[in-house]
Amino acid sequence: MNPASEPAQLKDIVAHAKEYGFVFQSSEIYDGLAAVYDYGPNGVELKNNLKRLWWEAMTQLNGNVVGIDAAIFMDPRTWEASGHIAGFNDPLIDNLDSKKRYRADVLLEEKAAEYENAGDPARGAALTAEMGRLLTANDLAGVRQLILDEKILCPVSKTGNWTEVRQFNLMFSTQGSAVDSDAPPVYLRPETAQGIFVNFLNVQKSARMKVPFGIAQIGKAFRNEIVARQFIFRMREFEQMEMQFFVRPGTEGEWYDTWKAARRRFHEALGLPAAKLRFHDHDKLAHYAKAAVDIEYEFPFGFKEMEGIHSRGDFDLTQHQNLSRKKQQYFDADIDPATGKAYGNYVPFVVETSVGADRLFLATMCNAFTEETITEGEGETLQTKTRTFLKLPPALAPVKAAIFPLVRKDGMPEKAQEIFDALKFDFRLVLEERDAIGKRYTRQDLIGTPFCIVVDGQTLEDETVTVRHRDSREQTRMPISELRAYIGEAVSFRRIFEQL
Protein backbone atom coordinates (compact mmCIF):
# COMPACT_ATOMS: atom_id res chain seq x y z
CA MET A 1 0.00 0.00 0.00
CA ASN A 2 1.31 3.44 -0.89
CA PRO A 3 2.10 5.14 2.46
CA ALA A 4 0.62 8.37 1.16
CA SER A 5 -2.76 6.69 0.75
CA GLU A 6 -2.82 4.95 4.14
CA PRO A 7 -5.40 6.10 6.69
CA ALA A 8 -3.86 8.52 9.20
CA GLN A 9 -4.33 6.17 12.14
CA LEU A 10 -2.67 3.27 10.32
CA LYS A 11 0.32 5.46 9.46
CA ASP A 12 0.66 6.33 13.15
CA ILE A 13 0.49 2.65 14.12
CA VAL A 14 3.05 1.64 11.48
CA ALA A 15 5.44 4.35 12.70
CA HIS A 16 4.85 3.35 16.33
CA ALA A 17 5.44 -0.33 15.54
CA LYS A 18 8.84 0.45 14.03
CA GLU A 19 10.04 2.98 16.61
CA TYR A 20 9.19 0.81 19.59
CA GLY A 21 10.43 -2.53 18.33
CA PHE A 22 7.25 -4.27 17.23
CA VAL A 23 7.52 -4.63 13.44
CA PHE A 24 10.28 -3.76 10.95
CA GLN A 25 10.34 -3.88 7.16
CA SER A 26 12.29 -6.98 6.08
CA SER A 27 15.78 -6.23 4.73
CA GLU A 28 15.23 -2.54 5.31
CA ILE A 29 18.92 -1.65 4.87
CA TYR A 30 18.54 -2.84 1.26
CA ASP A 31 15.40 -0.71 0.81
CA GLY A 32 13.16 -3.53 2.03
CA LEU A 33 11.42 -6.53 0.51
CA ALA A 34 7.81 -5.68 -0.34
CA ALA A 35 5.11 -7.32 1.77
CA VAL A 36 7.56 -9.10 4.07
CA TYR A 37 8.09 -7.99 7.67
CA ASP A 38 10.21 -8.86 10.70
CA TYR A 39 8.95 -8.83 14.28
CA GLY A 40 11.16 -6.90 16.69
CA PRO A 41 11.87 -7.48 20.41
CA ASN A 42 8.45 -6.34 21.59
CA GLY A 43 6.58 -7.58 18.54
CA VAL A 44 7.81 -11.15 18.86
CA GLU A 45 6.75 -11.22 22.53
CA LEU A 46 3.26 -9.92 21.73
CA LYS A 47 2.85 -12.31 18.80
CA ASN A 48 4.11 -15.27 20.85
CA ASN A 49 1.65 -14.39 23.61
CA LEU A 50 -1.20 -14.35 21.09
CA LYS A 51 -0.12 -17.69 19.64
CA ARG A 52 0.30 -19.28 23.06
CA LEU A 53 -3.10 -18.02 24.15
CA TRP A 54 -4.75 -19.45 21.01
CA TRP A 55 -2.86 -22.74 21.39
CA GLU A 56 -3.83 -23.25 25.01
CA ALA A 57 -7.43 -22.19 24.36
CA MET A 58 -7.62 -24.88 21.68
CA THR A 59 -5.61 -27.76 23.09
CA GLN A 60 -5.83 -27.18 26.84
CA LEU A 61 -9.43 -26.06 27.28
CA ASN A 62 -10.80 -28.65 24.86
CA GLY A 63 -10.22 -32.26 25.78
CA ASN A 64 -10.86 -33.37 22.19
CA VAL A 65 -8.35 -31.14 20.39
CA VAL A 66 -4.66 -32.05 19.98
CA GLY A 67 -1.85 -30.37 18.08
CA ILE A 68 0.75 -31.09 15.42
CA ASP A 69 3.55 -29.24 13.66
CA ALA A 70 3.64 -30.38 10.04
CA ALA A 71 6.49 -29.67 7.62
CA ILE A 72 6.35 -26.74 5.23
CA PHE A 73 7.43 -28.88 2.26
CA MET A 74 5.03 -31.63 1.23
CA ASP A 75 4.77 -34.12 -1.61
CA PRO A 76 3.64 -32.08 -4.66
CA ARG A 77 0.69 -34.46 -5.10
CA THR A 78 -0.73 -32.93 -1.90
CA TRP A 79 -1.44 -29.72 -3.80
CA GLU A 80 -2.81 -31.60 -6.77
CA ALA A 81 -5.32 -33.33 -4.51
CA SER A 82 -6.26 -30.14 -2.71
CA GLY A 83 -6.85 -28.28 -5.97
CA HIS A 84 -4.19 -25.65 -5.41
CA ILE A 85 -2.15 -26.45 -8.52
CA ALA A 86 -5.14 -26.14 -10.81
CA GLY A 87 -7.18 -23.49 -9.08
CA PHE A 88 -5.29 -21.43 -6.48
CA ASN A 89 -5.49 -18.20 -8.41
CA ASP A 90 -6.18 -14.51 -8.00
CA PRO A 91 -7.95 -12.46 -10.71
CA LEU A 92 -5.50 -9.72 -11.72
CA ILE A 93 -5.95 -6.61 -13.81
CA ASP A 94 -3.40 -4.03 -15.02
CA ASN A 95 -3.80 -0.33 -15.57
CA LEU A 96 -2.15 0.55 -18.90
CA ASP A 97 -1.32 4.11 -17.84
CA SER A 98 0.28 3.52 -14.44
CA LYS A 99 1.60 0.02 -15.29
CA LYS A 100 0.31 -1.04 -11.86
CA ARG A 101 -1.29 -4.44 -11.23
CA TYR A 102 -4.29 -4.98 -8.95
CA ARG A 103 -6.50 -7.77 -7.75
CA ALA A 104 -9.81 -7.28 -9.53
CA ASP A 105 -11.81 -8.62 -6.59
CA VAL A 106 -10.09 -6.21 -4.18
CA LEU A 107 -10.93 -3.23 -6.41
CA LEU A 108 -14.58 -4.28 -6.36
CA GLU A 109 -14.58 -4.99 -2.61
CA GLU A 110 -13.19 -1.51 -1.94
CA LYS A 111 -15.91 0.01 -4.13
CA ALA A 112 -18.53 -1.93 -2.19
CA ALA A 113 -17.00 -0.61 1.05
CA GLU A 114 -17.30 2.94 -0.33
CA TYR A 115 -21.03 2.43 -0.84
CA GLU A 116 -21.39 1.04 2.67
CA ASN A 117 -19.45 3.94 4.22
CA ALA A 118 -21.59 6.37 2.23
CA GLY A 119 -24.75 4.95 3.79
CA ASP A 120 -25.82 2.68 0.93
CA PRO A 121 -25.08 -0.85 2.23
CA ALA A 122 -27.65 -2.41 -0.09
CA ARG A 123 -25.75 -1.20 -3.16
CA GLY A 124 -22.49 -2.46 -1.67
CA ALA A 125 -24.02 -5.86 -0.94
CA ALA A 126 -25.42 -6.08 -4.47
CA LEU A 127 -22.02 -5.32 -5.95
CA THR A 128 -20.35 -7.94 -3.76
CA ALA A 129 -22.97 -10.52 -4.70
CA GLU A 130 -22.55 -9.83 -8.43
CA MET A 131 -18.78 -10.09 -8.11
CA GLY A 132 -19.17 -13.42 -6.32
CA ARG A 133 -21.45 -14.71 -9.05
CA LEU A 134 -19.02 -13.75 -11.81
CA LEU A 135 -15.99 -15.22 -10.04
CA THR A 136 -17.84 -18.44 -9.30
CA ALA A 137 -18.65 -18.73 -13.00
CA ASN A 138 -15.03 -17.78 -13.85
CA ASP A 139 -16.45 -15.01 -16.02
CA LEU A 140 -13.37 -12.81 -16.10
CA ALA A 141 -14.70 -10.67 -18.95
CA GLY A 142 -17.75 -9.98 -16.79
CA VAL A 143 -15.53 -9.00 -13.87
CA ARG A 144 -13.71 -6.48 -16.06
CA GLN A 145 -16.99 -5.09 -17.33
CA LEU A 146 -18.21 -4.72 -13.74
CA ILE A 147 -15.09 -2.67 -12.95
CA LEU A 148 -15.80 -0.47 -15.98
CA ASP A 149 -19.51 -0.13 -15.10
CA GLU A 150 -18.61 0.98 -11.58
CA LYS A 151 -16.18 3.54 -13.03
CA ILE A 152 -13.36 2.27 -10.82
CA LEU A 153 -10.13 4.17 -11.47
CA CYS A 154 -6.49 3.32 -10.82
CA PRO A 155 -5.44 5.03 -7.56
CA VAL A 156 -2.15 6.09 -9.18
CA SER A 157 -3.05 7.21 -12.72
CA LYS A 158 -6.69 8.10 -11.93
CA THR A 159 -7.74 6.46 -15.20
CA GLY A 160 -9.92 3.49 -16.10
CA ASN A 161 -7.69 2.19 -18.88
CA TRP A 162 -7.78 -1.46 -17.80
CA THR A 163 -6.47 -4.65 -19.41
CA GLU A 164 -8.37 -7.92 -19.45
CA VAL A 165 -8.62 -9.83 -16.16
CA ARG A 166 -6.47 -12.95 -15.94
CA GLN A 167 -5.79 -15.59 -13.30
CA PHE A 168 -2.43 -15.83 -11.53
CA ASN A 169 -1.35 -18.81 -9.40
CA LEU A 170 -0.23 -17.78 -5.93
CA MET A 171 2.07 -20.65 -4.99
CA PHE A 172 5.83 -20.28 -4.64
CA SER A 173 7.71 -23.23 -6.15
CA THR A 174 11.29 -24.40 -5.93
CA GLN A 175 13.38 -27.30 -7.23
CA GLY A 176 12.66 -30.45 -5.28
CA SER A 177 16.03 -32.13 -5.71
CA ALA A 178 19.61 -30.88 -5.74
CA VAL A 179 20.74 -33.71 -8.03
CA ASP A 180 17.78 -34.50 -10.27
CA SER A 181 16.91 -31.62 -12.56
CA ASP A 182 13.85 -33.50 -13.79
CA ALA A 183 12.37 -33.87 -10.31
CA PRO A 184 8.96 -32.24 -9.95
CA PRO A 185 8.88 -28.87 -8.21
CA VAL A 186 8.00 -28.64 -4.55
CA TYR A 187 5.97 -25.78 -3.17
CA LEU A 188 6.11 -23.55 -0.17
CA ARG A 189 2.78 -24.40 1.37
CA PRO A 190 0.06 -21.80 0.69
CA GLU A 191 -1.91 -22.96 3.76
CA THR A 192 -1.29 -25.10 6.82
CA ALA A 193 -4.50 -27.16 6.63
CA GLN A 194 -3.23 -29.84 4.26
CA GLY A 195 -0.53 -30.90 6.72
CA ILE A 196 -3.36 -31.70 9.11
CA PHE A 197 -5.44 -33.62 6.58
CA VAL A 198 -2.64 -35.91 5.42
CA ASN A 199 -1.91 -36.71 9.10
CA PHE A 200 -5.55 -37.35 10.03
CA LEU A 201 -5.18 -41.08 10.67
CA ASN A 202 -1.68 -40.75 12.16
CA VAL A 203 -3.03 -38.39 14.80
CA GLN A 204 -6.32 -40.21 15.33
CA LYS A 205 -4.60 -43.53 15.99
CA SER A 206 -1.55 -42.35 17.94
CA ALA A 207 -3.52 -39.98 20.18
CA ARG A 208 -6.45 -42.45 20.38
CA MET A 209 -8.91 -39.74 19.39
CA LYS A 210 -12.59 -40.38 18.88
CA VAL A 211 -14.77 -38.41 16.46
CA PRO A 212 -15.60 -35.61 17.02
CA PHE A 213 -12.07 -34.31 17.58
CA GLY A 214 -9.81 -31.56 16.31
CA ILE A 215 -6.22 -31.10 15.21
CA ALA A 216 -4.64 -27.69 15.77
CA GLN A 217 -1.54 -26.21 14.18
CA ILE A 218 0.36 -22.93 14.08
CA GLY A 219 2.70 -22.44 11.15
CA LYS A 220 4.04 -20.34 8.31
CA ALA A 221 2.36 -20.21 4.91
CA PHE A 222 3.43 -18.45 1.73
CA ARG A 223 1.48 -16.78 -1.07
CA ASN A 224 2.85 -14.83 -3.99
CA GLU A 225 0.52 -11.91 -3.41
CA ILE A 226 0.66 -9.37 -6.22
CA VAL A 227 -1.35 -6.84 -4.26
CA ALA A 228 0.30 -6.86 -0.85
CA ARG A 229 -0.84 -3.90 1.21
CA GLN A 230 -2.10 -2.46 4.45
CA PHE A 231 1.04 -3.18 6.46
CA ILE A 232 1.06 -6.74 7.85
CA PHE A 233 -2.56 -7.40 6.89
CA ARG A 234 -1.63 -9.00 3.56
CA MET A 235 1.84 -10.47 3.24
CA ARG A 236 3.73 -13.00 1.17
CA GLU A 237 4.99 -14.84 4.26
CA PHE A 238 2.51 -15.11 7.10
CA GLU A 239 1.48 -17.30 10.00
CA GLN A 240 -1.79 -19.20 10.42
CA MET A 241 -3.44 -20.65 13.49
CA GLU A 242 -5.78 -23.36 12.25
CA MET A 243 -7.89 -26.10 13.76
CA GLN A 244 -9.59 -28.78 11.69
CA PHE A 245 -12.45 -30.43 13.57
CA PHE A 246 -13.49 -33.88 12.30
CA VAL A 247 -17.15 -34.76 12.79
CA ARG A 248 -19.68 -37.45 11.92
CA PRO A 249 -21.48 -36.65 8.62
CA GLY A 250 -24.81 -35.02 9.37
CA THR A 251 -23.56 -33.19 12.47
CA GLU A 252 -21.43 -30.61 10.65
CA GLY A 253 -24.11 -27.89 10.82
CA GLU A 254 -24.32 -28.07 14.59
CA TRP A 255 -20.53 -28.01 14.97
CA TYR A 256 -20.20 -25.15 12.49
CA ASP A 257 -22.55 -23.04 14.62
CA THR A 258 -20.72 -24.07 17.79
CA TRP A 259 -17.31 -23.07 16.54
CA LYS A 260 -18.61 -19.91 14.91
CA ALA A 261 -19.86 -18.69 18.30
CA ALA A 262 -16.78 -19.94 20.17
CA ARG A 263 -14.36 -18.14 17.90
CA ARG A 264 -16.15 -14.82 18.25
CA ARG A 265 -16.06 -15.20 22.05
CA PHE A 266 -12.31 -15.70 21.80
CA HIS A 267 -11.76 -12.37 20.07
CA GLU A 268 -14.01 -10.52 22.47
CA ALA A 269 -12.20 -12.13 25.42
CA LEU A 270 -8.95 -10.66 24.01
CA GLY A 271 -10.50 -7.23 24.44
CA LEU A 272 -11.57 -6.54 20.85
CA PRO A 273 -14.82 -4.54 21.14
CA ALA A 274 -17.99 -6.31 20.01
CA ALA A 275 -18.88 -3.20 17.96
CA LYS A 276 -15.69 -3.63 15.92
CA LEU A 277 -16.37 -7.31 15.14
CA ARG A 278 -18.89 -8.73 12.72
CA PHE A 279 -19.74 -11.91 10.85
CA HIS A 280 -19.64 -11.83 7.07
CA ASP A 281 -21.13 -14.81 5.27
CA HIS A 282 -19.36 -15.74 2.03
CA ASP A 283 -21.19 -14.81 -1.15
CA LYS A 284 -18.88 -17.10 -3.13
CA LEU A 285 -18.55 -20.63 -1.73
CA ALA A 286 -15.99 -23.18 -2.84
CA HIS A 287 -17.68 -25.97 -4.75
CA TYR A 288 -17.20 -28.39 -1.84
CA ALA A 289 -18.19 -25.99 0.96
CA LYS A 290 -21.46 -26.21 2.84
CA ALA A 291 -21.07 -22.89 4.68
CA ALA A 292 -18.38 -20.26 5.25
CA VAL A 293 -18.23 -17.12 7.36
CA ASP A 294 -15.53 -14.59 8.18
CA ILE A 295 -15.05 -12.84 11.48
CA GLU A 296 -14.17 -9.32 10.41
CA TYR A 297 -12.53 -6.61 12.50
CA GLU A 298 -12.85 -2.90 11.82
CA PHE A 299 -9.28 -1.93 11.02
CA PRO A 300 -8.42 1.72 10.25
CA PHE A 301 -8.97 0.78 6.58
CA GLY A 302 -12.40 -0.77 7.19
CA PHE A 303 -13.91 -4.13 8.14
CA LYS A 304 -11.62 -6.91 6.91
CA GLU A 305 -11.33 -10.65 7.47
CA MET A 306 -9.40 -11.78 10.52
CA GLU A 307 -10.63 -15.36 10.84
CA GLY A 308 -12.59 -17.81 8.70
CA ILE A 309 -14.90 -20.61 9.84
CA HIS A 310 -15.71 -23.14 7.12
CA SER A 311 -17.80 -26.27 6.81
CA ARG A 312 -15.65 -28.19 4.29
CA GLY A 313 -17.58 -31.46 4.05
CA ASP A 314 -15.45 -34.53 3.31
CA PHE A 315 -13.74 -32.95 0.30
CA ASP A 316 -10.17 -32.83 1.61
CA LEU A 317 -9.92 -36.34 3.04
CA THR A 318 -11.73 -37.81 0.04
CA GLN A 319 -9.39 -36.07 -2.40
CA HIS A 320 -6.32 -37.37 -0.58
CA GLN A 321 -7.87 -40.82 -0.36
CA ASN A 322 -8.50 -40.90 -4.11
CA LEU A 323 -5.07 -39.69 -5.18
CA SER A 324 -2.97 -41.54 -2.60
CA ARG A 325 -5.09 -44.71 -2.80
CA LYS A 326 -4.88 -44.86 1.02
CA LYS A 327 -8.20 -45.05 2.85
CA GLN A 328 -8.92 -42.04 5.04
CA GLN A 329 -11.82 -43.61 6.90
CA TYR A 330 -12.72 -43.71 10.56
CA PHE A 331 -14.51 -46.64 12.20
CA ASP A 332 -17.24 -45.31 14.47
CA ALA A 333 -18.40 -47.93 16.99
CA ASP A 334 -21.15 -45.73 18.41
CA ILE A 335 -24.71 -46.92 17.78
CA ASP A 336 -26.84 -45.10 15.25
CA PRO A 337 -30.26 -44.75 16.94
CA ALA A 338 -31.96 -44.86 13.53
CA THR A 339 -30.62 -48.32 12.67
CA GLY A 340 -29.56 -49.77 16.01
CA LYS A 341 -26.18 -50.62 14.44
CA ALA A 342 -22.74 -49.07 14.69
CA TYR A 343 -22.13 -46.12 12.37
CA GLY A 344 -19.19 -48.07 10.94
CA ASN A 345 -16.64 -46.73 8.46
CA TYR A 346 -16.94 -43.27 6.96
CA VAL A 347 -14.82 -40.33 5.84
CA PRO A 348 -15.38 -37.61 8.47
CA PHE A 349 -16.65 -34.17 7.57
CA VAL A 350 -14.57 -31.17 8.62
CA VAL A 351 -15.32 -27.84 10.27
CA GLU A 352 -12.35 -25.49 10.02
CA THR A 353 -11.37 -22.44 12.05
CA SER A 354 -8.45 -20.45 10.63
CA VAL A 355 -7.14 -17.17 12.04
CA GLY A 356 -4.19 -15.19 10.75
CA ALA A 357 -1.69 -14.64 13.56
CA ASP A 358 -0.42 -11.49 11.85
CA ARG A 359 -3.92 -10.11 11.34
CA LEU A 360 -4.79 -10.81 14.97
CA PHE A 361 -1.56 -9.06 15.95
CA LEU A 362 -2.53 -6.03 13.83
CA ALA A 363 -6.06 -5.94 15.25
CA THR A 364 -4.63 -6.10 18.77
CA MET A 365 -2.22 -3.25 18.02
CA CYS A 366 -4.94 -1.12 16.41
CA ASN A 367 -7.27 -1.67 19.36
CA ALA A 368 -4.54 -0.96 21.91
CA PHE A 369 -3.15 2.21 20.29
CA THR A 370 -4.59 4.96 22.49
CA GLU A 371 -4.21 8.72 22.46
CA GLU A 372 -5.83 10.66 25.28
CA THR A 373 -5.72 14.20 26.60
CA ILE A 374 -4.44 14.49 30.18
CA THR A 375 -3.63 17.31 32.57
CA GLU A 376 -0.55 17.43 34.75
CA GLY A 377 0.60 19.74 37.52
CA GLU A 378 -1.35 22.23 39.62
CA GLY A 379 -2.07 25.94 39.57
CA GLU A 380 0.35 27.84 37.36
CA THR A 381 2.15 24.62 36.41
CA LEU A 382 -1.05 22.96 35.14
CA GLN A 383 -0.66 21.82 31.55
CA THR A 384 -2.63 19.77 29.07
CA LYS A 385 -0.96 17.29 26.75
CA THR A 386 -1.64 14.23 24.62
CA ARG A 387 -0.61 10.91 26.09
CA THR A 388 0.03 7.95 23.78
CA PHE A 389 0.11 4.41 25.14
CA LEU A 390 -0.72 0.83 24.21
CA LYS A 391 -3.70 -0.37 26.20
CA LEU A 392 -2.84 -4.04 25.80
CA PRO A 393 -4.47 -6.71 27.95
CA PRO A 394 -1.86 -7.45 30.66
CA ALA A 395 -1.77 -11.13 29.63
CA LEU A 396 -0.61 -10.11 26.14
CA ALA A 397 1.80 -7.29 27.03
CA PRO A 398 5.40 -7.94 25.87
CA VAL A 399 6.76 -6.79 29.24
CA LYS A 400 4.70 -7.49 32.36
CA ALA A 401 6.45 -5.07 34.70
CA ALA A 402 9.30 -2.55 34.70
CA ILE A 403 11.41 -2.04 37.81
CA PHE A 404 12.84 1.44 38.44
CA PRO A 405 15.18 2.60 41.20
CA LEU A 406 14.10 6.18 41.86
CA VAL A 407 17.73 7.34 41.82
CA ARG A 408 21.00 5.60 41.00
CA LYS A 409 22.43 5.68 44.50
CA ASP A 410 21.73 4.94 48.18
CA GLY A 411 21.29 1.21 47.54
CA MET A 412 18.22 1.63 45.35
CA PRO A 413 19.73 0.06 42.19
CA GLU A 414 20.85 -2.95 44.21
CA LYS A 415 17.37 -3.38 45.71
CA ALA A 416 15.78 -3.06 42.27
CA GLN A 417 18.12 -5.76 40.97
CA GLU A 418 17.16 -7.98 43.88
CA ILE A 419 13.45 -7.63 43.03
CA PHE A 420 14.18 -8.27 39.35
CA ASP A 421 16.09 -11.45 40.17
CA ALA A 422 13.26 -12.70 42.40
CA LEU A 423 10.54 -12.17 39.77
CA LYS A 424 12.33 -12.95 36.49
CA PHE A 425 11.50 -16.66 36.71
CA ASP A 426 7.78 -15.84 36.56
CA PHE A 427 7.49 -12.78 34.30
CA ARG A 428 9.25 -10.94 31.51
CA LEU A 429 10.61 -7.79 33.15
CA VAL A 430 12.84 -4.84 32.38
CA LEU A 431 15.11 -2.99 34.80
CA GLU A 432 15.76 0.66 33.96
CA GLU A 433 17.85 3.24 35.76
CA ARG A 434 18.39 5.97 33.16
CA ASP A 435 16.46 9.26 32.81
CA ALA A 436 13.85 10.91 34.96
CA ILE A 437 11.10 8.67 36.32
CA GLY A 438 8.48 10.37 34.11
CA LYS A 439 10.39 9.52 30.94
CA ARG A 440 10.74 5.94 32.08
CA TYR A 441 6.98 5.72 32.67
CA THR A 442 6.37 7.08 29.17
CA ARG A 443 8.68 4.55 27.52
CA GLN A 444 6.86 1.69 29.20
CA ASP A 445 3.43 3.15 28.34
CA LEU A 446 4.46 3.20 24.68
CA ILE A 447 5.14 -0.56 24.64
CA GLY A 448 2.11 -1.43 26.77
CA THR A 449 3.78 -2.47 30.06
CA PRO A 450 0.92 -2.71 32.61
CA PHE A 451 2.97 -2.09 35.79
CA CYS A 452 5.95 0.01 36.80
CA ILE A 453 7.52 -0.80 40.18
CA VAL A 454 9.47 2.03 41.81
CA VAL A 455 12.12 1.44 44.46
CA ASP A 456 12.64 4.52 46.65
CA GLY A 457 14.01 5.47 50.02
CA GLN A 458 11.02 4.06 51.86
CA THR A 459 11.62 0.68 50.19
CA LEU A 460 14.92 0.37 52.03
CA GLU A 461 13.16 1.05 55.32
CA ASP A 462 10.00 -1.10 55.14
CA GLU A 463 10.30 -3.42 52.07
CA THR A 464 7.44 -1.71 50.20
CA VAL A 465 7.38 -0.34 46.65
CA THR A 466 5.15 1.91 44.58
CA VAL A 467 3.28 0.16 41.76
CA ARG A 468 2.16 2.51 39.01
CA HIS A 469 -0.72 1.35 36.79
CA ARG A 470 -0.47 2.04 33.06
CA ASP A 471 -4.10 2.79 32.19
CA SER A 472 -5.13 4.93 35.16
CA ARG A 473 -1.64 6.20 36.13
CA GLU A 474 -2.67 5.57 39.72
CA GLN A 475 -0.05 4.44 42.21
CA THR A 476 -0.38 1.76 44.88
CA ARG A 477 1.98 1.08 47.76
CA MET A 478 2.50 -2.59 48.54
CA PRO A 479 4.97 -4.99 50.15
CA ILE A 480 7.58 -6.55 47.87
CA SER A 481 6.40 -9.95 49.10
CA GLU A 482 3.00 -9.41 47.43
CA LEU A 483 4.30 -8.49 43.96
CA ARG A 484 4.44 -12.01 42.54
CA ALA A 485 0.82 -12.81 43.40
CA TYR A 486 -0.42 -9.34 42.41
CA ILE A 487 1.21 -9.30 38.97
CA GLY A 488 0.53 -12.99 38.41
CA GLU A 489 -3.20 -12.54 38.90
CA ALA A 490 -3.34 -9.58 36.53
CA VAL A 491 -1.36 -11.17 33.67
CA SER A 492 -2.75 -14.71 33.91
CA PHE A 493 -4.33 -16.30 30.85
CA ARG A 494 -6.96 -17.60 33.24
CA ARG A 495 -8.68 -14.21 33.23
CA ILE A 496 -9.20 -14.55 29.48
CA PHE A 497 -10.02 -18.26 29.53
CA GLU A 498 -12.81 -17.71 32.05
CA GLN A 499 -14.67 -15.68 29.41
CA LEU A 500 -14.62 -18.45 26.80
From TrEMBL:
<keyword id="KW-0436">Ligase</keyword>
<dbReference type="InterPro" id="IPR036621">
    <property type="entry name" value="Anticodon-bd_dom_sf"/>
</dbReference>
<dbReference type="InterPro" id="IPR022961">
    <property type="entry name" value="Gly_tRNA_ligase_bac"/>
</dbReference>
<feature type="binding site">
    <location>
        <begin position="233"/>
        <end position="238"/>
    </location>
    <ligand>
        <name>ATP</name>
    </ligand>
</feature>
<keyword id="KW-0030">Aminoacyl-tRNA synthetase</keyword>
<feature type="binding site">
    <location>
        <begin position="223"/>
        <end position="225"/>
    </location>
    <ligand>
        <name>ATP</name>
    </ligand>
</feature>
<feature type="binding site">
    <location>
        <begin position="352"/>
        <end position="356"/>
    </location>
    <ligand>
        <name>substrate</name>
    </ligand>
</feature>
<dbReference type="InterPro" id="IPR045864">
    <property type="entry name" value="aa-tRNA-synth_II/BPL/LPL"/>
</dbReference>
<comment type="similarity">
    <text>Belongs to the class-II aminoacyl-tRNA synthetase family.</text>
</comment>
<feature type="binding site">
    <location>
        <begin position="356"/>
        <end position="359"/>
    </location>
    <ligand>
        <name>ATP</name>
    </ligand>
</feature>
<feature type="domain" description="Aminoacyl-transfer RNA synthetases class-II family profile">
    <location>
        <begin position="12"/>
        <end position="398"/>
    </location>
</feature>
<dbReference type="InterPro" id="IPR004154">
    <property type="entry name" value="Anticodon-bd"/>
</dbReference>
<dbReference type="Pfam" id="PF00587">
    <property type="entry name" value="tRNA-synt_2b"/>
</dbReference>
<dbReference type="InterPro" id="IPR002315">
    <property type="entry name" value="tRNA-synt_gly"/>
</dbReference>
<comment type="function">
    <text>Catalyzes the attachment of glycine to tRNA(Gly).</text>
</comment>
<dbReference type="InterPro" id="IPR006195">
    <property type="entry name" value="aa-tRNA-synth_II"/>
</dbReference>
<keyword id="KW-0067">ATP-binding</keyword>
<feature type="binding site">
    <location>
        <position position="191"/>
    </location>
    <ligand>
        <name>substrate</name>
    </ligand>
</feature>
<dbReference type="InterPro" id="IPR027031">
    <property type="entry name" value="Gly-tRNA_synthase/POLG2"/>
</dbReference>
<feature type="binding site">
    <location>
        <begin position="238"/>
        <end position="242"/>
    </location>
    <ligand>
        <name>substrate</name>
    </ligand>
</feature>
<keyword id="KW-0963">Cytoplasm</keyword>
<dbReference type="GO" id="GO:0016874">
    <property type="term" value="F:ligase activity"/>
</dbReference>
<feature type="binding site">
    <location>
        <position position="103"/>
    </location>
    <ligand>
        <name>substrate</name>
    </ligand>
</feature>
<protein>
    <recommendedName>
        <fullName>Glycine--tRNA ligase</fullName>
        <ecNumber>6.1.1.14</ecNumber>
    </recommendedName>
</protein>
<dbReference type="InterPro" id="IPR002314">
    <property type="entry name" value="aa-tRNA-synt_IIb"/>
</dbReference>
<comment type="subunit">
    <text>Homodimer.</text>
</comment>
<keyword id="KW-0648">Protein biosynthesis</keyword>
<dbReference type="Pfam" id="PF03129">
    <property type="entry name" value="HGTP_anticodon"/>
</dbReference>
<keyword id="KW-0547">Nucleotide-binding</keyword>
<dbReference type="InterPro" id="IPR033731">
    <property type="entry name" value="GlyRS-like_core"/>
</dbReference>
